[in-house]
Amino acid sequence: MEKAKLISYGMLLGNIVLLVTGQVLFKLGLQRAGGFVWQKMITSPLLISGLALYGIATILWFGVLTRLPLSQAYPMQALAYVIALLPAYFLFGEIITMTKLAGVAVILVGVYLLAR
Predict the structure, then answer these.
(1) How far is Cα 111 from Cα 73, in angstroms, rounded to an integer?
(2) How far is the C-alpha of 37 from the C-alpha of 73, rounded, in Å?
(3) How far apart are CA 24 and CA 94, in angstroms?
(4) Which three-class secondary structure state does DSSP give residue 88?
(5) Maximum CA pair distance of the chain?
(6) Using an 8 Å Cβ cutoff, are 32 and 44 in contact?
(7) What is the pLDDT of residues 77-114, one digit of tens each?
(8) In Å, how far are 30, 38, 108, 109, 114 from 61, measured between CA atoms?
(9) Which InterPro entries does its entry note (predicted)?
């Protein structure tokens, strides 16, 4: 793979990881705040950190959009669903069913086809 494409996909992966990490911080922050409690949310370091990661992810996304076609880059963000299963299972104790795993397999095949 050529260097420019490798950099583009690296930026895209970085964007996806930042988005998933931001979501994990949102979930942790909301749990600690006791749910959607506005007064606690606006001072939560976890929620503020999640928002900061989203900001960085957006800047990376701008870079991705200058390098890859939208029709290729945007659907590849579906990898966020795949990556999000890991903290869902390990941090939050969520159940990963065979149906979810089948969905992940479909996403992975789709991303592979898009990357070709």
Answers:
(1) 10
(2) 35
(3) 13
(4) helix
(5) 49
(6) yes
(7) 999 999 999 999 999 999 999 999 999 999 999 989 98
(8) 26, 29, 20, 23, 17
(9) EamA_dom, EmrE-like, Small_drug/metabolite_transptr
